[in-house]
Amino acid sequence: LWACEPRLVSSEVGYRKPAAGFYRELLRRCAARPDEVLMVGDDLTADVHAPREFGMSALWLNRTQAEPPAISTLVSLLELLPSQA
Questions:
Q1: What is the pLDDT of residues 36-49, one digit of tens each?
Q2: Peptide bond connecting 69 to the previous residue in cis, omega within 30 degrees of 0
Q3: Alpha helices, H only, 17-77
Q4: Which of 37, 43, 59, 73 could pair with 47 as two cysteines, CB 3.0-4.6 Å apart?
Q5: What is the pLDDT of residue 12?
């Protein structure tokens, strides 16, 4: 599991998610292609739909499970860790 450094803060980048400029800057700073990035977040529009339109993989962090999952979801970030089987 790898995380990009530095972290992006929208107010510092000049673009707020779901603006394409935010994702372009993310890719630039991480020196990554869209197909190399997995976005994970709790906002369906900003963290899932917009990154997918930009060519990234994305998972919805649906901790409360208030809505039935219509897309790939996680209940906890721990699900991203390798299994200790």
A1: 998 988 898 999 99
A2: no
A3: 20-30, 50-53
A4: 43
A5: 83
Token couple for 11:
């107010």
Q: 51: phi > 0 → left, psi -120 to 50 → alpha, else beta; which?
A: alpha
DSSP assignment of 4-29 equals -SSPP-HHHHT--TTSHHHHHHHHHH
Residues 6+ apart with CB under 8 A from 46: 17, 18
Neighbours of 39 (CB within 10 A): 20
Residue 10: count of CB within 10 angstroms of its CB: 14
Report residue 29 as tokens: 């700073």
